[in-house]
Amino acid sequence: MNWLDICALEEINVLGSRIVDGPKGDIAIFRTSNDEVFALDDRCPHKGGPLSQGLIYGKRVACPLHNWQIDLESGEALAPDVGCSHKYPVKVEGGRVLLALKTLSDCA
C-alpha cells in the first residue's frame, strides 16, 4: 500500500480534523480524544454536509447540517439513519499521520 505523509499528529487538533485532496473529492482525517485517527470522505451520505466541520465525540462525528451520526471506524450512519461515507486506511507512525488513497468501504 502506498502511504502519503500528511502531517504531524499534533497538527490536527484533538477532536478536530484536517482536509486533504483525494481523487474523488476531499478526505477528512479525524483525531479523537484518545489520539486515534480515522479518514472518511468529507461528505455526509445524507445531504453531502462537510463532516470535517462536525462535532467529534468518542468514535463518531455529527454532521453539521442535520446531525446525522457517522461512525468513524466504519463510515456507516447510525440507526435510524442509513448510508455511509467511504473510509480510507490511515495510521500514525513516528508521530506522523499517514494516509492511503484506497477506499476500504463500498458504499454509494
From TrEMBL:
Q: Is the keyword Membrane in the record?
A: no
Query: Start and end of every Rieske domain?
Result: 4-99
Q: Which organism is it from?
A: Pseudomonas fluvialis
The residue ranges crossing the membrane are: none
**Taxonomically, which superkingdom?**
Bacteria
Q: Name one GO molecular function term.
A: nitrite reductase (NADH) activity
Q: Which UniProt keywords apply?
A: 2Fe-2S, Aromatic hydrocarbons catabolism, Electron transport, Iron, Iron-sulfur, Metal-binding, Nitrate assimilation, Oxidoreductase, Transport
Which PROSITE patterns does UniProt cross-reference here? RIESKE (PS51296)
Q: What is this protein called?
A: Nitrite reductase (NADH) small subunit
